[in-house]
Amino acid sequence: MPGGTTILWLRADLRLDDNAALVAAASRQGTLLPLFIHSPTEEESWMPGGASRWWLDRSLRALDASLRERGSRLVVRHGASLDVLRDVAREAGAGAVFWNRRYEPASIARDRIVKQALRQDGLVAESFNSALLFEPWENVKNDGTPYRVFTPFWKSMLKRGNVPSPLVTPAPIAAPSRWPRSESIDDLALRPRPDWAAGLREAWTPGENGAHAELARFLRDGIENYETGRNLPSQVGTSRLSPHLHFGEIGPRSIWKAVHDLAADRGSAAFDAAAESWLRQLAWREFAHHLLFHFPHTAEKPLRPEFARFEWADDETLLSHWQRGLTGYPIVDAGMRELWATGWMHNRVRMIVASFLVKDLRVAWQEGARWFWDTLVDADLANNTMGWQWTAGCGADAAPYFRVFNPLLQSRRFDPDGIYLRHWLPELAALDAKWIHEPHGAPALVLEAAGVRIGKDYPAPIVAHDQAKRLALDAYQSMMSGR
DNA sequence: TTTTGAGTTGTTCGA
DNA sequence: GTCGAACAACTCAAA
């Protein structure tokens, strides 16, 4: 019978707007019990890192506040998901559990067990899609197998048409007559101790309102010049929506519609082109989930099996210099310090630092993926995995192995005035645009005038790029020839 | 099945 | 300084 109480099991969908499970639960004409279960070990080896936990803490508080505005609240518990769901269902007399799907391998396995068990208990258990425009199994090749190249995936997605519209959430949200026990968000101990999150607080506003504000900012100031702006780390030329998307504070359906509405309003071909280039990025997110769904081993292992025998440098020193932003290459070090301070790094710089770790230092891409996982507020298994495998050349797109980023050229091209470098490397701030990209090459008098002592104030390069590139290419060739 | 065209993000060389 | 071609040849998608 309809009615009764439905548990809305919230996970990576921390929003009220455009939430399919919420809309479906509300349509049952009963009451709704919003529940978050903290169960990090169920993510197996991909437990949220410190930056992600900080974000989650803030996002849960924002969600609770939004629910209270609508006459409800967020129940918070910790423990094994199935056990908690059963306990809460009993305590609240709930007859149904609804949730939005996640696509990480460990989540899929857990959710399958949970759904089956709840149904055996006699509960209604249903899952929905609120994270993606299309399910990973929907947009596949004509022969039913998954795509491994982005462009055909994207064309096929456009050809499907009918991108779903965002769902409208009813207000208020009907609260149950009796609330089950809830822990406080503080009890989850998500906030870092000691508190190193000052930079994160300054940079971000987690939560649904913060997400929509960021989208509005980007649609107003960023999207028109996205093609150039997205490559300049000294500017806010990207949407910065990645952490909001990861936690589901905003969904792709809302974004797709907002962009198309704006494009229709502008009615200019130039705007359409800019808008499409950004929506392609949203499709890359879809593609990443598609890949992780169909190739679940790729979070740990290369998609291209021949890369399993690549000989990586097993060198803790190189890795730790990279992690701390002490490589002697300013663009790499600036990026790594931005990451450490804000939990985020500009995408252009992510490519540069990733290429540097994998090709110049020849440290395994999995080490870089791990560090990003622990430090990024937008750490997302699908995106992180695809990005690192692409950089290493072992991923879905056949990037030619000789494509090695030159950190000096990239730095000059995308931060010509050194604004980004000076911001994150204050010890180099007095160097001019000519030398800030390569301080170790500057004449002694220039260094002296700028107060920079190489090896003391700022490190000498830990590897010589030209030589490192040759060694990397040799290593790739050895691997390919099977030696 | 075979064939054909194409593939996020780069660098370097030589005209 | 700018531009096109080469890098080296592989995998994928689709006709």
Key phrases:
DNA Cyclobutane Dipyrimidine Photolyase, subunit A, domain 3, 3 domains, about 5% strand, Rossmann fold, 20 helices, alpha/beta, about 475 residues, DNA-binding, globular, Serine Threonine Protein Phosphatase 5, Tetratricopeptide repeat, five-stranded parallel beta sheet
Strand and helix map with partners:
Blueprint lengths: L4 E6 L9 H7 L4 E8 L11 H20 L5 E4 L2 H12 L1 E7 L4 H16 L3 E5 L21 H11 L37 H6 L4 H14 L4 H4 L12 H5 L5 H15 L2 H26 L21 H9 L5 H13 L4 H14 L4 H11 L5 H12 L14 H8 L4 H6 L19 H7 L14 H16 L3
Parallel strand pairs: 1-2, 1-4, 2-3, 4-5
The structure holds a DNA duplex (15 and 15 nucleotides).
Describe this structure in words.
- α5 packs across α11, α11 (269-294) packs across α16 (381-392) and α15 (365-375) packs antiparallel against α16 (381-392).
- This protein has three domains: 5-129, Rossmann fold (3-Layer(aba) Sandwich), CATH 3.40.50.620; 132-166 and 206-294, Serine Threonine Protein Phosphatase 5, Tetratricopeptide repeat (Alpha Horseshoe), CATH 1.25.40; 305-480, DNA Cyclobutane Dipyrimidine Photolyase, subunit A, domain 3.
- The protein is of the alpha/beta class and 483 residues long.
- The protein starts with a strand and ends with a helix.
- The relative contact order is 0.11.
- The chain has helices spanning 20-26, 50-69, 81-92, 105-120, 150-160, 198-203, 208-221, 226-229, 242-246, 252-266, 269-294, 316-324, 330-342, 347-360, 365-375, 381-392, 407-414, 419-424, 444-450, 465-480; strands at 5-10, 31-38, 75-78, 94-100, 124-128.
- It has 20 helices and five strands.
- It binds a DNA duplex (15 and 15 nucleotides) through residues 141-143, 147-152, 231, 280, 284, 304, 347-348, 351, 355, 390, 397-406, 409-410, 469.
